[in-house]
Design a protein that fits this description.
It contains 7 helices and 8 strands; from the N terminus they run H-E-E-E-H-E-H-E-H-E-H-E-H-E-H. The protein has about 250 residues and is α/β, with parallel strands linked by helices. The chain has a single domain, classed as Glycosidases (TIM Barrel). Keywords: Signal.
Length: about 250
């Protein structure tokens, strides 16, 4: 029965109402079927750090392609257009050596040649998503200064830190494509009730702020993926079940 239901689910994607801002930063890894647990009433868009949409997918949820780094850039233009994308995301943490790690000058050249032309098709362009470190803000400032004539419709930002007040102070139109409270990271231990409660309170506070703030267009909690270590902020546990955070974010 389960096999038959799952096969039918692949053929007939789920449909649900949604919050126009709330999205999923989804890491499909080896469990792409986990997307079905997001079939609540809250999430309207999804991205997966890739130009290719996750499969299976959920009907009615916008997929936003991302050009993560320099690989595969030649096909990004045609891929975004053929997918009828309305929004795309630029490079992922280009200021950080362990992520896409792209010098500003190189990023400007690639943006002009392979991303900016999408604007002529009516596709909205999200800036490279830098880290919340000082180096990230400097990288983005240099990029915007050097990329003369470039289109950037909204700023994509990441934030990792402590406390809702600090998050709100950090945040033109922005998409917060990764955010969580690192103060409550369980540090290799199984999350305690105190940790869950603290994280959930943070989530509720900052989501309420972003939902009520016009210049925050969209946001996605980091991350919608299974826990590979006892990381309290993940929205799925090791068995693919929604954690308390996932339950509130998806169905709240």
């Amino acid at each position: 029965m389960f096999v038959r239901f799952f096969a039918l689910a692949l053929l007939f994607p789920l449909v649900f109402a949604s919050n126009s801002k709330r999205g999923l930063a989804f890491d499909p890894a080896s469990h792409p079927e986990d997307i079905y647990k997001a079939s609540g009433r809250s999430c309207s868009w999804v991205y997966n750090w890739s130009p290719s949409s996750p499969s299976p997918s959920i009907s009615g949820v916008e997929f936003v392609p991302m050009q993560w780094g320099t690989d595969g850039l030649n096909g990004f233009l045609s891929g975004a257009r053929s997918a009828s994308a309305t929004n795309v995301l630029g490079f992922n943490e280009p200021d950080y050596g362990q992520q896409s790690n792209i010098p500003v000058g190189t990023a400007v050249q690639m943006w002009k040649a392979d991303i900016n032309p999408l604007a002529s098709s009516g596709i909205r362009l999200g800036s490279p998503a830098v880290t919340s470190a000082d180096s990230g803000l400097q990288w983005l400032s240099d990029f915007l200064a050097q990329c003369s004539g470039c289109t950037v419709d909204f700023l994509a930002v990441h934030w990792y830190g402590e406390g809702a007040a600090n998050f709100i102070l950090y945040l033109q139109k922005v998409w917060v494509t990764e955010f969580t409270d690192t103060r409550t990271d369980s540090g290799g231990m199984s999350p305690t009730v105190r940790v869950w409660c603290s994280l959930l309170e943070f989530m509720k506070q900052v989501v309420a702020f972003m939902d009520a703030t016009d210049w925050v267009e969209r946001y996605a909690w980091f991350a919608y993926k299974r826990t590979t270590s006892p990381l309290a902020s993940n929205m799925l546990d090791g068995n693919g079940n929604l954690t308390p955070l996932g339950q509130w974010y998806i169905h709240g």
